């Protein structure tokens, strides 16, 4: 019954730019979406953020890559949302009420893929499967003073050296101020440098300058570049490039852009398409996704974990298979967790504290399935995820449904993981008035704290020592709150 009222309440929050907001994960569902331990804070449809006049082949706009920027002056958080024909900028510093600030249109017509990364308060944007696009540079500090959103922004610079047209992806090593453009073509579709990385100095962001390129290892679909601080002391301080190169992983020392040194290549069984991977933070392991093994070979969602403790001799450490055969796409590591965009299976979050083990190296701890129809091996649903905001908020870009701003339910220690959770009840819930907490089994209510969805305490009462307590919060804004009882048990409450 509570779930029914929650959904009814949430439907009242609909507006033209925000599809829905504050949809908690209740009994395995966040509204229409299967979930575990993830609440939806807000959603903005892709059609709101894209340019409806620039649709490829007459189809509707779609979402693709996503990244984030935190303004170092204001600490506001922004989502940079790639679509078929534009890059949208969304202020998510209030994630329940995100503000779509505007978009930067494509530089060369509509396309399927667009990728963005950030360096020194600038966004660097490339696009694939389109003509003379080049690399767009956009000064993100423009987002500080948008008085009448949404705005149609213009690029601050366009990089098109070597008659650069398309690039599939862009990688930035922020330590060095170098961008790596990969999978690039001229406007006529001719590959540039076999699709290998092009090294661009972006230390002066509005004046990008080519350093060199590298063609010997062929096409790079995606890559990660780090200033190495891992266990292989032979490479300490070196700039290491890990390329996902369609048929192999290529490890390169790219410290000297005029003298690239190959370290190792890696292949593996049941190879479909070596797509994308990410280091663990200690650089001991590399988590790889193969994009076509599920579709073409028939495996369940597969993550390959490689031991990179010796970069000259990398080896497969373990393989994780998911519960369905949904295709995996982009995955990123933050601390001891792995955030995987898994197309029709949505966002999956894994605990990787046991990553060194030969079995059970990853454990799924949370998910939000934004494609509820099925988890089949097809290209719908979540394209990518950005988990690196200091707030703990996570942004997802869904191909059909656009931007999701979400947060792990467990970040506020909700009731799923506490002892004696049924000792206290809240009524009414959802509530239009001050709700009453009632204790059972001779329990006493000693203290009550109320938090909003951002984790801010809005009410606190100590030394209650009663089996009933009315919480005086009805004058607060409508939405989702967490009531913490006796500093131990947490309950979700909806004010409507």
Alpha-beta content class: mainly beta
Q: Count of DSSP helices?
A: 3
Principal-axes geometry comes out as globular
* Estimated radius of gyration: 24 Å
In the sheet with the most strands, the strands line up as 2-3-29-28-27-26
CATH topology of the largest domain: Methylamine Dehydrogenase, Chain H
Q: What this model shows, in words?
A:
The protein is globular, with a radius of gyration of 24 Å. The chain has 2 domains: 411 residues, Methylamine Dehydrogenase, Chain H, CATH 2.130.10; 81 residues, Immunoglobulin-like. The strands form 9 sheets. The chain has a 6-stranded antiparallel sheet with strand order 2-3-29-28-27-26, with no helix packed on it. Strands 1-4-32-31-30 form a 5-stranded antiparallel sheet. A 5-stranded mixed sheet has the order 5-6-7-8-12. The protein is 4% helix and 43% strand. The protein is mainly beta. It has 3 helices and 39 strands.
